[in-house]
Design a protein that fits this description.
The complex is a heterodimer of chains A (456) and B (90). Chain A has 456 residues and is of the alpha/beta class. Chain A has two domains: 70-309, Type I PLP-dependent aspartate aminotransferase-like (Major domain) (Aspartate Aminotransferase, domain 2, 3-Layer(aba) Sandwich), CATH 3.40.640; 314-446, Aspartate Aminotransferase, domain 1 (Alpha-Beta Complex), CATH 3.90.1150. Chain A is 41% helix and 13% strand. In chain A, the strands form four sheets. Chain A has a seven-stranded mixed beta sheet, sandwiched between helices. Chain A has a four-stranded antiparallel beta sheet with strand order 11-12-15-14. A two-stranded antiparallel ribbon of chain A has the order 1-2. In chain A, a hairpin with a 2-residue loop joins strand 1 (46-48) and strand 2 (51-53). Chain B has helices at residues 8-22, 28-44, 51-77. In chain B, helix 1 (8-22) runs antiparallel to helix 2 and helix 1 packs parallel to helix 3 (51-77). The chains are: A alpha/beta (456), B mainly alpha (90).
């Protein structure tokens, strides 16, 4: 009892002392003389890329990545500190305990998607899983199957893998989407050929947040006996993902979108009927030969803990995030007109709100929103100034596509943050519209599209 | 020391300890989430009548308290110097 009192007192003083300790130098190993002032040295403000802000921005970009949940970090830390063994070492305790942790995490991931642990392969992320699924499947079945069907709104890694396959001589059909972002299942059915080897449709789109009709697509694929692959990186832990209800053969999962660590993902591969792929990473045959390489135990444990948390918290989070999304949308719509929600409003994941503001220039809107960490529709995938291909596939006009902003709401977002973001967005949009001659013309009643711009 | 069924003062004490620990998080978002989740968690479990379910929830709460204490320490060690915009006044 006395020992407990002493340790509690010690811990309390340690907490007090560390709070008043001089801030830890974040770069103790840099040997070059620091000629550029470290942007994190000045405690009163932050100057990065020439912009000075007084505090860390509020984070509303959950589709790009999510903060690691403290419960996940707590599960991971022992595997960085004392339990650092390689799970493939068969001869000592370090290997055995590491392997046990990996298998427990595998079970946790499998339980979230209603699969068997034997069907889960750990990879370095959803991008790698997508590559294995698209290229691996087609390469394995290349004698008989030469055709892939995918959509125009897929993630860049799927589209790039398909382009790679096209260069190798395979045929790819890029299905168009309707103006609400959903795939037309009739068009999918028409596109199927006898030599179709794979259908790949992502479950929840990362840019616009629409949820595709997975059960209908799965039913069509089952009817024609074609493997169905889905990129469920944004869907995992957020909507109900069930590999049997959706009838998927392959599913890509990502760790860092569900409050887990970055650098880890998983691939679900159905066993009945068995889907086979050609591995993209060759080596010692780990992960049943599908993905060789040492399985990173701390990351895998983190992903497993994140999945288990997601299973327990999904209902609570969904209710809350739905309330926050309504609050944001109503707050913005109450003060501004000309606000368009990109993508279907009914079939969407509640944590993704992609808005376009009419008569406002996109880059200047983002520059003014420096205290809010959001993403614009175009910056996600390319460094060029082209508007996002997803919005283009929806048929959104160029000018509206340029002004799109994607707000990502997550587990840790507070009501105050939403209110602050609404306030800042409304202020910035009003400021820009006041300066805009186009908006003046619209208010006078002139139809912008009918103007013949004179050439000087 | 297996608790047969936690008494009401024990539950209230656990609730207070969790809130007290949550308040110490240096990160704004984690702090607000911890406080909110604790309150909502205890409110949702208020209706539990089955003694084994109550004991399980209490044990879970105790392990969450230990976890929170550890993580408060870890977060404070690496707290950024510049605070979140939400913590500074307008």
């Amino acid at each position: 009892m006395a020992a407990k009192l002493i340790t509690t007192a010690l811990r309390r003083t340690a907490l007090r002392r560390t709070a008043s300790l001089k801030p830890i130098n974040l770069r103790p190993f840099s040997t070059a003389a620091a000629t550029i002032p470290d942007p994190y040295d000045d405690p009163s403000s932050l100057t990065v890329k020439g912009v000075k802000i007084s505090g860390r921005p509020l984070y509303l970009d959950m589709q790009a990545t999510s903060p690691v949940d403290p419960r996940v970090l707590d599960a991971m830390l022992p595997f960085y500190l004392s339990r650092y063994g390689n799970p493939h070492s068969r001869t000592h305790l370090y290997g055995w305990e590491s392997d046990e942790a990996v298998e427990i995490a595998r079970g946790q991931v499998a339980q979230l998607i209603n699969a068997s642990p034997k069907e889960i392969v750990f990879t370095s992320g959803a991008t790698e899983s997508n590559n294995i699924s698209v290229k691996g499947t087609l390469h394995f079945y290349k004698e008989k199957k030469k055709h892939v069907i995918t959509t125009q709104t897929e993630h860049k890694c799927v589209l790039d893998s398909c382009r790679h396959l096209q260069q190798e001589g395979f045929d790819v059909t890029y299905l168009p989407v309707k103006s609400d972002g959903l795939v037309d299942v009739g068009k999918l059915r028409d596109a199927i050929r006898p030599d179709t080897g794979l259908v790949s449709v992502m479950a929840v789109n990362n840019e616009i947040g629409v949820i595709q009709p997975m059960e209908e697509i799965g039913a069509v694929c089952k009817e024609f006996k074609i493997p169905f692959h889905t990129d469920a990186a944004q869907a995992l832990g957020k909507i109900d993902v069930d590999v049997d209800k959706w009838n998927v053969s392959l599913m890509s999962l990502s760790g860092h979108k569900i409050y887990g660590p970055k650098g880890i993902g998983a691939l679900y591969m159905r066993r009945r009927p068995r889907i086979r792929v050609e591995p993209q990473m060759n080596g010692g045959g780990q992960e049943r030969g599908i993905r060789s390489g040492t399985v990173p135990t701390p990351l895998v444990v983190g992903m497993g803990a994140a999945c288990e948390l997601a299973r327990k918290e999904m209902e609570y989070d969904e209710k809350r995030i739905s309330m926050l999304q309504e609050r944001m949308l109503n707050g913005i719509r109450a003060k501004l007109d000309g606000v368009v929600v990109n993508g279907s409003e009914e079939r969407r994941y509640v944590g993704n709100l992609n808005l376009s503001f009419a008569y406002v220039e996109g880059e200047s809107l983002l520059m003014g929103l420096k205290e809010v960490a959001v993403s614009s529709g175009s910056a996600c995938t390319s460094a060029s100034l082209e508007p996002s291909y997803v919005l283009r596939a929806l048929g959104v006009d160029e000018d509206m596509a340029h002004t799109s902003i994607r707000f990502g709401i997550g587990r840790f977002t507070t009501e105050e943050e939403i209110d602050r973001a609404v306030e800042l967005t409304v202020k910035q949009v009003e400021k820009l519209r006041e300066m805009s001659p186009l908006y003046e013309m619209v208010k006078e009643g002139i139809d912008i599209k009918s103007i013949q711009w004179a050439q000087h | 020391m297996a608790a047969a069924s936690p008494s009401r003062p024990e539950i209230i004490s656990l609730f207070r300890s969790l809130l007290r620990t949550s308040r110490q998080f240096s990160d704004y978002n984690i702090r607000e989430y911890s406080k909110r989740r604790t309150i909502d968690g205890f409110r949702l479990n208020k209706q539990l009548t089955d003694p084994s379910a109550v004991a399980a929830a209490f044990a879970d709460g105790k392990s969450q308290l230990e976890l929170a204490k550890r993580q408060v320490l870890v977060y404070s060690l690496y707290a950024p110097k510049v605070k979140s915009i939400m913590e500074l006044n307008h």
